Amino acid sequence: MSRAVGAVLLIAMVAGACVRIPPKRVLPESITSLYIVTFENRSYEPGLEEKLTRFTQEEFLVDGRLDVTRRPSADAVLVGKLQRFNVMSDRFGSDEFPLTSRIMASADVALYDPSDRKREKPLMEWEAIGVEFMHVSDVRRVMHIIADDANEAALRELAHEIVMTVLTREPDKVASTLMTAPPPASTSPQRVPGRKQLDTRFLDAASTESLPARDSSGRPQEP
Asked: What is the CATH classification number for the domain harbouring 27?
């Protein structure tokens, strides 16, 4: 029986050690919902913006920390630009036929206040969010992935990276209105250098009147 209990405890400890702790959120807690605008496609591959927008919405919903909603009820508007989507052959066989391919994708995203319709003042910006996706492209191989499926897989990885970046990575640029204000100066009694007693400049008159009178040596005088 003791061996069985020990085995169960060992399994529980191993399982606990394998639990994945999600990265800590750095996005302000005041932002609980997003409206996601259709991505702008600046790459040379047409037709990717709709898929990247949909995948990004789905990744936010799966993560669960932010709601995806319409603009009127959103705390912020996410605007993204697909800057790069390059497909290149990575490895070749003896017959010079491509065996594997690599997809390099990157995007920039920014958050805006919903009232900023012209998108003139971004609240936060993240640049060069990128992923690399490698796959077997040789159609003669059992593990090969057709081009359309590979493109979708790369876009899904990029969407996931966008979500993690917005939630857990410090922005590259932050609006001055979101900067943390310095803490107010302390108004508690301060020690004056060279003296042992507290500086009573910050004490009110009522408290000073209750102090006993002292002679020239600093000792309390007899009443």
From this structure: 3.40.50.10610
Q: Does 53 map to a domain?
A: yes
pTM: 0.68
Domain that holds residue 116: 22-85+106-128+150-175
Q: How many CA atoms lie within 13 A of 87 on its CB side?
A: 19
Query: Is residue 114 assigned to a domain?
Result: yes
Confirm whether 12 is domain-assigned: no
Count: domains in the chain:
1
The predicted-structure confidence for 32-68, as pLDDT tens digits, reads as follows 999 999 999 999 999 999 999 999 999 999 999 999 9
